[in-house]
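Standup notes
- DV: blocked on the single-chain target, sequence here:
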Amino acid sequence: MRVAVVTMLASLMLLLTGGSWAQTWSEYRSEEGNLRIEMPGLPKLNTVAIPIGNNETAPMIEAQMATRQASYQVSYISYPRRIGQSAATDVLLDNFRNKMAAGSSYRTEKQLTLGRFSGREFVVVEPNGRNTAVRLYWVRGRLYQLMVTGGAGIENNPDARRSLESFALLTT
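- DV (later): unblocked, structure below
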């Protein structure tokens, strides 16, 4: 009887905790980037110089991590004022989407908002079969990019949805 109770309690604990192999989610927060997002692990930080025209570059700050099923990335680039004023937000988001999907195709695009700021969600489908669920937001001259890359259907993966939907600005 005692063994049955201990076994039942151990099974219940395993179910409730998800077992020792469960992912540990963490919140990545950047005061400088004015953002927070959840990822299934601790991201690695990196800075990349992105060409923005007129022989200029802007730093893209990115946080990325990978699991066996997918890679997760959030990044932001602060553009010079002249770029933000060069076109309407929808046109800028279209241009960013088109550059991201160059050499590939994109599907299931929908318009989003983050508070009063415009955004887009779409899936980039690469010729090799890799898919990337993407969210873009344009906020006061800053482009935020959220990406989860994996196999077909990654945009419907519960972990991908959790990460993409957890994104928030610290202040608006």
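- Follow-up: Confidence is low (pLDDT under 50) at residues 3-21.
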